[in-house]
Write a structure and sequence with these properties.
This protein has a two-stranded antiparallel ribbon. A two-stranded antiparallel sheet has the order 3-4. The chain has 368 residues and is mainly alpha-helical. It contains 16 helices and 4 strands. It is 60% helix and 2% strand. The protein has one domain: Glycosyltransferase (Alpha/alpha barrel). Pfam families: Glyco_hydro_88. Residues 1-20 form the signal peptide. It comes from Pedobacter jeongneungensis.
């Protein structure tokens, strides 16, 4: 009888433990729920002025903020929000048409991911026709391409290759969206091939990434672009893709390192491996998105990584102010071989660099 009671108690404890593990990314305190937080962030986007690239075209931070709000609206079936977001885009294709990015740079071509997201939601072919050229021209060498760009293209890579870690979200996201919109594997396969190039060139043995080959610093948001880019690819890559094992290995190695470098409070630093550097929100949110997705998709061990992801989310939410703006966001940052440069980067409030990945986290948490 005693043995049966002990066995029953052990079973009960085991069940309680499993229940707790399964709900780490579901049950949150009041004010921390992803639906509530996501609504604040998504509707806040509607009130924002355009964030332009070079003062001319819709920028990548705005593009990703917009797409994040669309995905949140779709997942939560918020028809009002979806209508307002589409209405804003309609204005962009009419009286604001001059703000549509040209197709000559990695930071501009990524814009195609936004109309392709709208196409997948609405099935309106106008969005498809607008978005696909942004994906196609990443691999169509222009007549004025320089020698290096032609060399990259000759090796099968995008002529926009430059080996900055930021690129592995900019290239990945538009190619991934083109794959989802068309079903044509060429888009996802060339993105995967590009990712392997960047992994081989930039990932260090500790799993983190230099900003560029000549900039040996582990910049937070730059590493975040890599983490999010690998996440997007792993979500979509067919199981028989030859590059999938390499990308999964790079992802797993990075996630282990991020677990080790997470601050006790849950955030990550502007320079990830520098304990005296400041906690930065955009990179932290990108890491959280990659971790949440990994746990839910089964790429990461739930018992080991769900607590890491939960700690990050609980640390991130208090940085959102009463207006729905995220604080402590590193401004747009070019590469520079100067460690102090990264320490001294200005910090913004409400910058779309931070708003976007926070939204990614909300729909990753809400996904079944």
């Amino acid at each position: 009888m005693c043995r049966k009671l002990i066995a029953l108690l052990l079973l009960l404890i085991s069940c309680q433990f499993l229940y707790a593990q399964n709900n780490l990314l579901k049950d949150f305190p009041e004010g921390f729920g992803p639906k509530e937080v996501g609504k604040r962030l998504a509707y806040r986007f509607l009130d924002r002025k355009h964030m332009l690239h070079a003062g001319k075209w819709i920028s990548y931070p705005e593009t990703f903020n917009w797409t994040g709000a669309l995905r949140y609206a779709k997942l939560t079936k918020d028809k009002k929000l979806l209508s307002l977001l589409e209405e804003r885009f309609e204005k962009l294709t009419s009286q604001e048409k001059q703000l549509l990015p040209i197709m000559n740079h990695v930071d501009l071509n990524m814009f195609g991911s936004l109309p392709l997201e709208l196409y997948q939601i609405t099935k309106d072919k106008r969005y498809f026709d607008l978005g696909i050229p942004y994906a196609d021209t990443q691999w169509a060498v222009p007549q004025n391409a320089d020698k290096k760009q032609k060399e990259w293209a000759g090796k099968g890579f995008s002529w926009q290759t430059r080996l900055w870690i930021d690129d592995m979200y900019m290239i990945t996201i538009v190619q991934a969206q083109a794959y989802k919109a068309t079903g044509d594997r060429k888009y996802i396969e060339r993105a995967a091939s590009e990712m392997v190039l960047y992994l081989d060139e930039l990932q260090r043995p500790n799993g983190l990434f230099y900003h560029a080959p000549d900039v040996p610093f582990y910049w937070g948001r730059g590493n975040g672009w890599m983490a999010a880019g690998m996440t997007e690819l792993l979500r979509l890559l067919p199981k028989d893709n030859k590059d999938r094992p390499r990308i999964l290995k790079g992802y797993e190695t990075m996630m282990k390192s991020l677990k080790d470098f997470q601050r006790p409070g849950g955030m990550w630093n502007q320079l990830i491996d520098e304990p005296d550097c400041w906690a930065e929100t955009s990179g932290s949110a990108m890491f959280a998105y990659a971790l949440i997705s990994g746990v839910k998709q089964g790429w990461l061990d739930k018992q080991e990584y769900a607590p890491v992801a939960r700690k990050a989310w609980l640390a991130m939410v208090p940085y959102i102010n009463e207006k729905g703006d995220v604080a402590e966001v590193c401004v747009g940052t070019n590469k520079k071989n100067d460690k102090q440069y990264y320490y001294d980067r200005p910090r913004n409030v409400g910058d779309s660099h931070g708003q976007s990945p926070y939204l990614w986290c909300t729909f990753a948490l809400l996904e079944k």
